[in-house]
Design a protein that fits this description.
Elements lengths: L1 E11 L9 E12 L5 E11 L8 H7 L3 H4 L6 H9 L3 E4 L2 H11 L7 E4 L16 H7 L10 H13 L8 H6 L4
Parallel strand pairs: 1-4, 4-5
Antiparallel strand pairs: 1-2, 2-3
Length: 181
């Protein structure tokens, strides 16, 4: 049975998902086999910048490279985001504790959805990886990461990582989905 999920990633003005603001959102809607955890393909992608209504702190710009000039007057396409969320059986983020609060504040309907964390829902350390960080995991799998800390690149790379077969032939996505059962 095939299902759809969305991987979401945000770039923000800071680390507090109660007071800081989203400056970029990336979403990858994909289809997967519910039983095998095999990724069957990307259905749709979305990425946009968002004016947070206040200056982006220099430390945040240093992390993601997004400037006030980049986001000035920019908005998310709420209809598009809601459409992607509505076609998703579940939502995935590489650090749910971070991304989820930002997404739920912008799109309260996502509070009713199942969320999985690809950082904590896979036993990365037990598998011998010294870090659960996305960039480190990508390097350990010999993936070229693209632009680190840019929302759509991070969402795509999370999907790429979850699609990877383990030594026993199962995907990391399969292990992550086991958290739903």
């Amino acid at each position: 049975m095939n299902l759809r999920a969305s991987i979401l990633d945000v770039e923000t003005t800071g680390l507090d998902n109660r007071t800081d603001e989203v400056v970029e959102l990336g979403i990858v809607l994909f289809e997967f086999d519910r039983f095998t955890g095999q990724v069957l393909g990307i259905v749709e992608e979305y990425s946009a910048l968002r004016d947070p209504g206040r200056p982006i702190p220099p430390g945040a710009t240093l992390a993601h490279g997004i400037t006030d000039a980049d986001v000035r007057g920019r908005r998310l396409d709420d209809e598009k985001v809601r459409s992607l969320l509505g076609r998703s059986t579940l939502l995935i983020a590489h650090n749910v504790r971070f991304d989820r609060g930002f997404i739920e504040r912008l799109y309260p309907e996502s509070r009713r959805m199942a969320w999985l964390c690809s950082m904590d829902g896979v036993a990365w350390r037990r598998k011998g990886f010294p870090s659960k960080g996305l960039q480190e995991l990508l390097r350990a799998h010999n993936f070229t990461a693209g632009a680190a800390h840019r929302a759509l690149d991070d969402a795509r790379n999370t999907l790429r990582l979850l699609s990877q077969a383990q030594h026993d032939g199962t995907t990391y996505l399969s292990e992550l989905l086991a958290g739903l059962r």
